[in-house]
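Incident log, structure service

09:12 report received: a user says their structure output differs between two submissions of the same chain.
09:20 pulled the input from the user's history:
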Amino acid sequence: MSDLQRSFAKARLASLSQDSLGFPSTIAEKDEYEEEETDELQPSEESGPDEDSSSTSSTSSASSSGTIRPNKYYLENVRSNEVVIHHIYITPPAPEGPLFVLHHGAGSSGLSFSHFAVELRKALPTAGVLSVDARGHGETVVKTSDGQIKGEPYDLSLDLLSSDLSDTIKLVHAKFHWLRLPDMVLVGHSLGGPIVTDVAMRGILGSAILGYVVLDVVEGSAMDALQQMNSYLASRPTTFPSLASAIEWHTRSRTLRNSTSARVSVPSLLYQGPAASIPEKQPWTWRTNLSVTERYWQNWFTGLSKKFLEARGGKLLILAGTDRLDKELTIGQMQDAGHFIQEDQPGKTAMVIADFYRRNDRRALVLPPKVQNIQKK
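09:34 re-ran on a clean worker, output below:
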C-alpha cells in the first residue's frame, strides 16, 4: 500500500473528528432570506433536539464579535420504527439559484465543509448550501418509537444513510415552502461519496439532481484502506486534554493540512466526557466511535465505481492522489491536498465544483432552433 493510500486510511477515520460547519464568509447576499455580510460564520447556539425536536429551530444572529451564525435546524423525520432528528446547516439559495448538498465522511460532521461553502458562494453568489450531520455524527439524534435515544451500535448501512439524505432534502423542501426542488449538485467526501452516488442512482429526487461530486474516494483504494482501519484507530489518541491539543494533533499528524479549517472542524468531532470529577479536567472524546461501524465498512464502498459511472447526471471525481484511481475510473488529481480535500484546498475545490455546475446548468444550455423555424427564414 502506498503512502497516499495509508494517508487515505488515516484521514478517513480522522474525519471522525473533523466536522463543524461554520461557514467563514466574507460575502453574503441580501435576498429574501436576509443573509448578512460577515467576516466569519459560526454555528448558532440554539436549542438541541431534546428541547425542540418536533420542528425546526433556527435564527441568524450576530454575535458580540460582529460575526453571524448560519441557520441550523433540527428536522424531525418520523418512521415506523424510529424518529430521526436530522441536524443540518443551511444557507438557502436565491430564487432560481442552485442548491449544493454536502455530505461528510465517516466520523466527521457537516462542519467539515465550512470553508469550502464560503469559497463556493464567492464563486456562485446565488447558490445555496445544505450540509448535513449523518446519524451517529454531529448533533443528529435517532430515537426509538417510544422516545428513547439510540446509542451504539449505530445502524450505518448505506441504504439507511442514503434514505436519511434524501429524506432530509425533502424535509428542507417542505420547511422552506419551495414550489419545487431547486437544481441540486450532491457533493460527498469519503463515505459521503457512496451516499450521494447511491441517492443519484436511486433517482428518488428525479431531474432536480444536475450532477454529483465524489471527493477522494474510489472503490479499489477504499477497500484496500479498510485493511488498515483498525490499526489506525488503535494508534490514534482516544482522548485529548483540550480542544487545542486535538487541533494540534490533527495538524501535526497531517490529517488536516489547513490549520484555519482545523480550528473550525475539529471541535465538532469531540465531546467532553464525564470521566473526571472536576469539569475543567474532563477529557475530550471522539463523538463517533468508528470501531463499532466495522461491519458496514465494505457495504459502504462495494460497487461504488459501477454506480458512479451508471447513475444519471453529471459526474465529477476529485482525488488527492492519482494512485487511488480504479481501473474503471481515470480522473484528475488535486495537488497539495490530503484526504480532506475540501478542508485542505477549499478555494481550489470550490472553483472546480463551481465550474462543474456551470457546465451542467440547464439554464445555460443553448438549444438549436427548430427545423421549421429555419425553413421559414
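09:41 both user submissions now match this output. Likely a transient worker issue. Closing.
09:42 reviewer note: The radius of gyration is 20 Å. The longest strand covers residues 82-91.
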